[in-house]
Specification:
The complex is a heterodimer of chains A (390) and B (528).
Chain A lengths: L1 H6 L4 H20 L7 H26 L7 H17 L5 H26 L3 H19 L4 E2 L3 H8 L8 E2 L2 E2 H27 L7 H23 L7 H19 L1 H11 L1 H6 L4 H27 L1 E2 L7 H11 L11 H20 L4 H27 L2
Antiparallel strand pairs in A: 1-4, 2-3
Chain B lengths: L2 H6 L6 E12 L2 E12 L3 E5 L6 H8 L9 E6 L2 E3 L4 H6 L2 E4 L11 H5 L6 E2 L2 E2 L1 H14 L15 H14 L4 E5 L7 H16 L3 E5 L3 H7 L2 E6 L2 E7 L8 H9 L17 E11 L7 E11 L3 E6 L5 H8 L6 E9 L2 E3 L4 H6 L2 E4 L3 H5 L6 H6 L7 E2 L2 E2 L1 H14 L16 H14 L4 E5 L7 H16 L3 E5 L3 H7 L2 E6 L2 E7 L5 H8 L3 H8 L1
Parallel strand pairs in B: 3-10, 3-11, 6-9, 9-10, 15-22, 15-23, 18-21, 21-22
Antiparallel strand pairs in B: 1-2, 1-4, 4-5, 7-8, 11-12, 13-14, 13-16, 16-17, 19-20, 23-24
Helix pairs in contact in B: 5-6
Classes of the chains: A mainly alpha (390), B alpha/beta (528).
Amino acid sequence: MTSLKKILGGNVRQYGIVGALFVIVLLFQVLTHGKLLLPNNLASLVQQNAYVMILAIGMVIVIVAGHIDLSVGSLVALVGGASALLMKEAGWPWYLAVIAGLMVGALAGAWQGFWVAYVGVPAFIVTLGGWLAFRGLAILLVSRTVAGFPGGFISISNGSVTNSLGYIGNRDVVTLVLGAVTIAALVISQLRSRRTLRKHELQVEPLTPMIIRVVLFGGIIGAFTWILAGSRGGTPIVLLIIGVLIVVYSFVMSRTVFGRNVYAMGGNLQAAILSGVNTKKMNFWIFVNIGTLAGVAGIVTASKAGAATANAGTMYELDAIAACFIGGTAVTGGIGRVSGVIVGALIMGVLNIGLSIMRVDPAWQSVVKGVVLIFAVAFDLVNKRRAGGR
Amino acid sequence: MSDDTTSDDTTSDDVILEMRAITKTFPGVLALKDVSLSVRSGEIHAICGENGAGKSTLMKILSGVHPHGTYDGEIAFEGKPVQFRGIRDSEHHGIVIIHQELALSPYLSIAENIFLGNERSTHGVINWNRTDAEAAKLLARVGLSERPDTKIFDIGVGKQQLVEIAKALSKEVKLLILDEPTAALNDEDSARLLDLIRSLRERGITCIVISHKLNELIKIADRTTVVRDGETIETFDMHGDRKVTEEDLIRAMVGRPMDHRFPDRTPNIGEEVMRIEDWTVHHPIQQERKVVDGASINVRRGEVVGLAGLMGAGRTELAMSVFGRSYGTNISGRVIKDGKTVTPHNVHAAIEGGIAYATEDRKRYGLNLLADIKRSIASSALGKVSRWGVVDPGVEATVAERYRTDLDIKAPNVDVLTGNLSGGNQQKVVLSKWIFTDADVLILDEPTRGIDVGAKYEIYTIINRLASAGKAIIMISSELPELIGMCDRIYAISQGRVTGEVPREEATQERLMRYMTMESDTQKEVTR
């Protein structure tokens, strides 16, 4: 167990969830007689769950900072509706409508951020208000379903990266190249962090665990890439969007002053204030950020459905919150990582798609997901208690 | 029954508690090695030792927090072997522990708290008349005149401590364990509490008191057991032929003689760095109340200035209101830094202006216990380890590593969470954090609270080094010997006013205490 700990970089809590994802994937692979990991199913796993991952990235920042955002599902509908009307009624080009949609999200976030940061209304209340108000605005805006979007808009969630490099066998070369680049980036980042440590004459971990770790995660990415390259379109465009968001936000949370301050606020708000963190400004921007990301999710959702409806995004906020908690985010704030909540979102996604392939009644799907949520957090707590010792 | 007979004529029959050969391991750590403790019936038995020596673990075993089976060894209570599975088990036998962090519910009344989990009820319906009547009786026994329906929220820490004791009495306690009972109390409240503990002894209640305050132990304990590195070192008979001194206890605690409790420093005092003039601060809620009233103080380069005052005198409030207006409303007065009037309206501006404030309550206001050492040290000066808002982890770790070595923070590396450090080492992290901001005025609020003797000496050494390096230090402390031992000059504060200024050579506890207890009315007469 200790050797395993070393290999995984001491962060057993994080990897426990990766292990859980692995087990769930294997389970459904068996239960669906191998259908789960078919190339096209893998592609739709990504496309159908893009919204959870996007929202969860914003949500983890909010939760780590010690707040919650209940309004994102309603905001998804409002942004989707606004973009749809700009395209269909006002005749805007789709990319301008997308930008406008993101701005609607940011504005809604700024509205909520104002009340949380500068008036001090608890985020639960403010976003409960947003949950009601944004849904209401969406209904006023989109009285009937708006459909028939330009192709460019549709392909955000349904399209794939153009195959410009041909095929090896039946595998899309563009996808394979992207996979190879990702693995290379992983190796380089590991080597760079070693070099930084050595440059500053700090303790460097032995080489073997690092190699095992790189082989393990490189292998997972490689396998994923290989399967995905065999899918109908290759790499879904939305996967690129998610990939960029993951990289950017992982960096923001672990390496920037902004990220440090988020963890500081969630870990001990009073100490953060007395350390000179401008908590008001932080809170404001945290909500602007999740509003914008809810905008992205709104665009992705409308694109996926090919239509904007007033009840789009219903319960999305709870999916995002669940993904955060399954992914090891602490309910009390201060703890949580972007990589963790992505794994949490994938667990939810695999459950969704696996149960759908098995043609399980949606009502029962809901029951299963609810139980898994509790199991995941309980497992995490028990693990932590054991690791803590006292 | 006088104290002397209990302690002199004790035979083994009088032993109420016998812990034999207790050994306890946590994963990878041997916390207690073959510890034995024998407590006589009706005595006040003190336990002291450095932080991490094993005192709390021993008491957790005794009270059943660490249940039977998780440790080796035997416990006999009132002559019979006992095996506690939880707190309820030990309380059932009459053993009650009062933790350092009080376990009272702030929004419930005194009476409700006293009978929490032990309600005066019939068939689940609470009998409020009985509850209040019995609570009033218990309050009288501990010398509290508050009404039983007063909310805990509305009474001070000192009185809360007394409520805890009343709660213990309601459980028909035979052995009362108090963990650092006076740590958060001022001298007056401490004295009252110690009197109460003495009066409990007269009623036949045995007490175990864990404390860092050696002078208090010497005053009240019948016997004192010293624990060091998970072993019992020695049990002193405090009424023996030779008087036990603080030095005896310290020697046993640290395993070496401590000739000087305060390290020497040759003051090299330069020009004035900061002056606070006519500083008045109002209470944030009761806005007509002045918490700090026309205070004027100054501090010079290389000088350690003390602020002495009883709890509630306004020392912390003065410091925090200067530090970026972190406390109070309707603040007036002037802060002059390096000859210029400055107005630090928020903490960030104060830090930029070269002022640092290390809080009196590390865990609540000082540290993010979920963060590791390196992030904690950088947290107030992230600008110094980042460019364009991006933190350089290499620089951050190097900086932290430097402070770990310089200040001797006892941790294998800087990736250890601050929550896993002892109080003394947490305080070193806090000091590192503020030293790293390059402040030239450091306000240290109770820098050695809850820290063991050895670590205190190290903190003093750090403070002296800072002063020698030309920093201006303002030190707030409730321990007068500490102020007298460390400071070049001491201001006394009473009810928000500066009532006296005493240079090192003239500082005595008596003189300071006289200024600290000066009523504001008499003060007004003096100034007029």
